[in-house]
């Protein structure tokens, strides 16, 4: 819900910021009416969204001097107005004036709180850009620049209103000295573009992290910086925001109604953030219960008061962010709902180990040199799509790795902790499971060659560690190696029957196997289906033999095995479920980023098999 409102902010912020800056010309240029304001605002918005593809870094370098000049102008003009008109407005720091204000104005004071919201909105977009700038940079900028300058600007405008109360409709430009109007107008317009750009890039970050958590359809993400991992550009979101901004400006044609909508969106995000931070304090930080409850009581009560004030503006444009949030919420919920049902279907239809044992080490087909990387969402068991490959292909690779990409709730996963391996079936099957872990800020744009090299190196480390662990545990009782043994899971090796197979001593027909020695008749019989370095199922190859087989398979190349799945609701499902899955979710799957592109695999080495998931 909060993310949906933030995306709505990405539409409203550029619209109201640019339009507010341009509207200053209405009182300065004769004949510059509402139509001119709308046309100029649309032109500026087109320019703003067109430069997003260059990235936050380049745009930030270009805008940062302008932004510094903007805040310097705000502070200077505020101090000038304070000194010239009425410095006694500094008494407003006294909280008692809150009581006097409500006592004097009653109902009007309550509605005025909606305008007070607009004095603080926009600054929070800085904190949504944590993926684009460092935490320290944002803290210093807000505490030492943004907050003091805004405070001086608003106090200066209050001092001006003490002498010119009729200027409230155009207070910002009226409070600017006449000789500085045009320079301030240019800087204000550029600053509005910068504020809009900050919210646009924040929208990119939210969408990207929602995708990583499986709550948004897959979209193309372009990483625009080699130094900062969070600087991204999402083309389809950029152009969608641009179109919606133009539509909002064209329809409303006034900043008043857009401001009403903007306030509801901002306070809604604040309420959701306060609720989630409270949960984090209780469940993750494990803060003292009293202190954790004080946080929502203090901040939540203030935000609730403002929320009640801005809700009165729903009929006057406030419905717009609620409509945007509802649409995005439906998209995110539908995608997450369909993805969860698809995953449950894969878990339900996974292949049993007994079925794999019946097939034997040749898997009922011919094993040819090479490594097959079969992508699946399962972290346990053998996916049903593997049977489709066995039925469709005349041969299967000598080494099979079931790759499962998972995003974990940490920003970055180190390279040395990227892959988790586990053996699937007995040793002579040469099948492994690999969980590739990525943080929600990790960049998955590594070259496929480096990905393959890192995967093989990690697999070799796993095989060496597995051999060491088995040697250390060889004297334990068989009861220590059952399926539920935590010790076997900690070692990262299979349990149950797989362990029993691993514990076969390196003996055959009463003699020790010699690594690199002459091939037996059984080895010769299987040589047609496996690389020469792979031994038969009746023998347990040594570590060196298995590593040699892995290197031989690697030299033969990698093939990426992907499922081209279609998700359909069962015939006995409810009408609503059929509507959501068969139409809405299916439409999203057809139009979202394809699996090969999303997984960053080379198109020349892909094999796909179709499959229908009944959920």
From TrEMBL:
Keywords: Ion transport, Membrane, Potassium, Potassium transport, Transmembrane, Transmembrane helix, Transport
Region spans: Disordered: 475-494
Taxonomy, superkingdom: Eukaryota
GO molecular function: potassium ion transmembrane transporter activity
Transmembrane segments: 32-51, 63-83, 109-128, 140-160, 180-204, 232-252, 258-282, 289-312, 318-338
Protein's membrane topology: Multi-pass membrane protein
Localization annotation: Cell membrane; Membrane
InterPro entries: K+_transporter, K_trans_C, K_trans_N
Physiological role: Potassium transporter.
Family: Belongs to the HAK/KUP transporter (TC 2.A.72.3) family.
Name used for this protein in its record: Potassium transporter
Organism lineage string: Eukaryota, Viridiplantae, Streptophyta, Embryophyta, Tracheophyta
């Amino acid at each position: 819900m909060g993310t949906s409102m933030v995306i709505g902010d990405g539409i409203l912020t550029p619209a109201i910021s640019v339009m507010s800056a341009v509207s200053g010309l209405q009182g300065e240029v004769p004949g510059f009416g509402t139509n001119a304001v709308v046309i100029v605002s649309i032109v500026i918005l087109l320019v703003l969204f067109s430069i997003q593809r260059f990235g936050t870094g380049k745009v930030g370098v270009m805008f940062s001097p302008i932004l510094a000049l903007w805040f310097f102008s705000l502070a200077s003009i505020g101090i000038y107005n304070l000194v010239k008109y009425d410095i006694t407005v500094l008494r407003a720091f006294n909280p008692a004036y809150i009581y006097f204000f409500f006592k004097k104005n009653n109902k009007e004071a309550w509605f005025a709180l909606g305008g007070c919201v607009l004095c603080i909105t926009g600054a929070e977009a800085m904190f949504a850009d944590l993926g684009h700038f460092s935490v320290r940079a944002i803290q210093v900028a807000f505490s030492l620049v943004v907050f003091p300058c805004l405070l001086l600007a608003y106090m200066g405008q209050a001092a001006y209103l003490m002498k010119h109360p009729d200027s409230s409709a155009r207070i910002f430009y009226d409070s600017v000295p006449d000789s500085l109007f045009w320079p301030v107008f240019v800087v204000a317009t550029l600053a509005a573009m910068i504020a809009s750009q900050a919210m646009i890039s924040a929208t990119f970050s939210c969408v990207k992290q929602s995708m990583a958590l499986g709550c948004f359809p897959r979209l193309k993400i372009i990483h625009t910086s080699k130094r900062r991992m969070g600087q991204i550009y999402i083309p389809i979101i950029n152009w969608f925001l641009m179109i919606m901004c133009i539509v909002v400006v064209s329809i409303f044609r006034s900043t008043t109604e857009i401001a009403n909508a903007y306030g509801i969106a901002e306070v809604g995000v604040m309420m959701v953030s306060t609720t989630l931070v409270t949960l984090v304090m209780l469940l993750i930080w494990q803060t003292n219960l009293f202190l954790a409850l004080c946080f929502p009581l203090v901040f939540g009560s203030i935000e609730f008061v403002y929320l009640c004030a801005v809700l009165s503006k729903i009929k006057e444009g406030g419905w717009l962010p609620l409509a945007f949030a509802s649409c995005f919420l439906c998209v995110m919920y539908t995608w997450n709902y369909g993805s969860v049902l698809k995953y449950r279907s894969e878990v339900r239809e996974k292949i049993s180990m007994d079925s794999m044992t019946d097939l034997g080490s040749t898997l009922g087909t011919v094993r040819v040199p090479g490594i097959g990387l079969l992508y699946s969402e399962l972290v346990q068991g053998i996916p049903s799509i593997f049977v489709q490959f066995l039925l469709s292909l005349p041969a299967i690779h000598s080494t099979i790795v079931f790759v499962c990409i998972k995003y974990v709730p940490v920003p970055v996963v180190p390279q040395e902790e990227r892959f988790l391996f586990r053996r699937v079936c007995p040793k002579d099957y040469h099948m492994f499971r690999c969980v590739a872990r990525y943080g929600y800020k990790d960049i998955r744009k590594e070259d496929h060659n480096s990905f393959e090299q890192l995967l093989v190196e990690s697999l070799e480390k796993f095989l060496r560690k597995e051999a060491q662990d088995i040697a250390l545990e060889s004297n334990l009782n068989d009861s220590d190696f059952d399926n539920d043994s935590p010790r076997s899971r900690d070692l990262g090796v299979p349990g149950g029957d797989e362990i029993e197979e691993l514990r076969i001593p390196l003996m055959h027909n009463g003699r020790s196997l010699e690594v690199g020695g002459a091939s037996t008749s059984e080895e010769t019989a299987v040589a047609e289906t496996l690389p020469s370095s792979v031994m038969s199922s009746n023998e347990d190859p040594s570590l060196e033999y298995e590593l040699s087989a892995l290197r031989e398979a690697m030299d033969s190349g990698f093939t990426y095995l992907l499922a081209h799945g279609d998700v359909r609701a069962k015939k006995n499902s409810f009408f609503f479920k059929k509507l959501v899955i068969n139409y809405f979710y299916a439409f999203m799957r057809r139009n979202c980023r394809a699996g090969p592109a999303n997984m960053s695999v080379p198109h020349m080495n892909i094999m796909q098999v179709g499959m229908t998931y009944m959920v």
